[in-house]
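Batch manifest, entry 17 of 40.
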Amino acid sequence: MLDSAFDAVDGVFTINGKLPYLLHRWCTEEDVRARHLRVDEILHALSRKPPYGLRSVEWLATTERVLRAAAQQVAVGELTDAVALRRELIRRTYSGAARFGEKYNEYLLELDQLEQTLPEAHWALLVRHPAAAAASMLRWSGDRPWRPTTWEAAATQLPPPPRNRTAKDRTTS
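Output type: structure tokens
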């Protein structure tokens, strides 16, 4: 649904695109200082569980071209600032798109790092009904040791519902 909405305004939306997440791990100050952009690791991670969305195949091909070109620049010392490089890689990867969006659950754990790379980004937090979230967990496949096998196990992995705040709570927080 979101990929269609972005496509309608000449944008790109990927599900599990996770490029900013991967760049925080494999485009560090240490990597850039060593003149090494870990393109193979990033591309392997992107292809291991490929992103999807209306323009995801095109986006993935663009991402590979952008990363390989940047790796050459890093290797000869033309790009020396990891934060600036991550920003530039995102800009190049989504060039031509009026706007872009990504859905990747682990972003919730990395908002500070994402804000460093995407300081002008707008964030949207999507909340699912607990039953839908539990049903989704039960459909998970693959080697996930945390994968629940029963409704009860899935329910224990969900965050607690927000509590209703009283007037007193609002005045003390």
